[in-house]
User: What shape does this take?
Amino acid sequence: MKKDLRKLTPDQLKEWLKSEGEPAFRAKQIREWLWEKGATDIGEMTNLSRVLRDKLADAFEIRNVRVHTSQFSADGTIKSGFKLYDDHLVEGVLIPTETRMTACISSQVGCSLTCKFCATGYMNRERNLDAAEIYDQVQLIRNQAEQHFNAPLTNIVYMGMGEPLLNYAAVLESVEMITSPEGLNWSPKRITVSTAGIAKMIRKLGDDEVKFNLALSLHAANDEKRNTIMPINESNSLANLAEALNYFYKKTGNKITFEYIVFHGFNDKIADAKELLAFVRRVPSKVNIIEYNPISEASFRNADPLAIDKFAAFLEENRVTVNIRRSRGKDIDAACGQLAIKEN
Assistant: This one.
């Protein structure tokens, strides 16, 4: 199998060009085609000579991600199955609202964390995505926003399939390319990476002084409850997470977003809100309250809308910044926690 051209570093590409008797400045042109213009075939690189394109095609390939399937929700949400070079599939979602066009992208094929409320958690983790495969999802969803809504993509959330912090290097490399002038030249403030909570990797984000936003999927603010729905909590207790998140905040200055799905009869009482209040006061943060989206593998139900409103009102009365996130794309299994490949 030929090597993926996008896996070459700038220096490696220059070295290869030198070995072929080509000038070093060609590396910049090639990388512009790969990252800024999103070329999917070496033949598209028309400002290179035919001889150089042939040399590149003999030695390399571009393992671009392709849209395999697309589903369209009544609310405008578009869910796509993306096929990778080895025929694995991941899912990504375009979430349109009046003020935003958000790409929800995946970082792994499947997931290893087995969260009990999440469809992806019932899949096996097959492999990590590389940085280019993550980047391609953004490019493809950006194209959908322009094609279907005549609007630019405004936000990216790493909230699709997989745990981003268990694919740390590729996720950070993908962010680097998305924010690079060589790539999409985005502000990192428009990017959010969501984690189920791996304390040592959150601290590493702080050490690396990342500029993007960090969200923690919390869903319960005491260890006993959280252990039952998120086994990762057994080795990453709330106390350890609070310490790691504060470390991250001190290093980056970025407030944390806590994501809290409200399940009927499990974590939707004012007593649960009081526990959440006590926890969020430990870390500079805000809270996104999320409607639960049922999946066939689990028996959880969404909390009553009145209970959700009371829950949010309690937090707001205690000076917590709260947003209630309504489900989008539920009719095509594109909403939060519903992503899972349904075909062989």
